[in-house]
Design a protein that fits this description.
- There is one protein chain.
- This protein is of the alpha+beta class and 207 residues long.
- 55% of the residues lie in helices and 7% in strands.
- It contains nine helices and four strands.
- A four-stranded mixed sheet has the order 2-1-3-4, covered by helices on one side.
- The chain is globular.
- It starts with a strand and ends in a 5-residue tail after the last helix.
Length: 207
């Protein structure tokens, strides 16, 4: 046993946490959660009552949820891996800003797009379609804002951070984002990293 356990589901935001663990070079055990039924099982809900992945059990026994919170914790625990720029650096402030922007805006946009029925009490197909269309427009707007901040080829310039992996993951969920050259270029360079590409394939992205 490695002491670290990642609870994950294919195609989900747990990909970025797996990528972070691999970039650190940290051995971990993986527990695959099967579909929405797996997320609702009592033993998983004891880990995360929200019924969402990723969940990471740390070596100390602490259980963490929320992907960005996990990434920040891993960066604190393993600063030598340089998932993010060092504390106090202006580049770190920018990376954290965009991580929060993506998790607070683009990630919810994607959830509304793929699961519109969860966001209305109106069960009509028309209501779900209206929510889906608005979510797509919101993703277009939010990706355009993100694209404008990319220094190139990565968000902060020449060095990849975990914020770039997060952005590439979200772009894979919204095909129009790849029409933006800054986003498509960032994603291309992220996937040239063999460690990230391994986590990407394991989660079934880009298939």
């Amino acid at each position: 046993m490695s002491g670290y356990t990642l609870y994950w589901k294919p195609g989900s935001g747990s990909m970025v946490v797996e990528a972070a663990l691999r970039l650190i070079g940290l051995p971990f055990d993986g527990v695959r959660i099967e579909g929405t039924a797996g997320l609702a099982k009592p033993d998983f809900l004891t880990l995360n009552p929200a019924g969402k992945v990723p969940v990471l059990r740390l070596a100390c026994g602490e259980v963490m949820a929320e992907s960005v919170a996990i990434l920040l914790a891993l960066d604190d625990l393993f600063p030598e891996a340089r998932l993010l720029p060092p504390h106090g650096a202006p580049a770190r402030h920018k990376a954290v800003q965009w991580l929060v922007f993506m998790t607070a805006n683009i990630y919810p946009d994607a959830l509304r797009f793929y699961y519109p029925e969860r966001h209305t009490t109106d069960s009509s197909p028309e209501a779900a379609e209206a929510i889906k269309q608005q979510a797509a427009l919101d993703m277009d707007r939010d990706f355009a804002q993100l694209a404008g901040a990319i220094e190139g080829p990565f968000l902060l310039g020449q060095r990849m951070t975990i914020a770039d992996v997060y952005a590439a993951m979200l772009a894979d969920w919204h095909a129009p984002a790849m029409d933006l050259p800054e986003i498509s270029g960032l994603s291309k360079h992220v996937l040239e990293n063999p460690t990230v590409a391994e986590a990407w394939r394991h989660h079934g992205f880009g298939t």
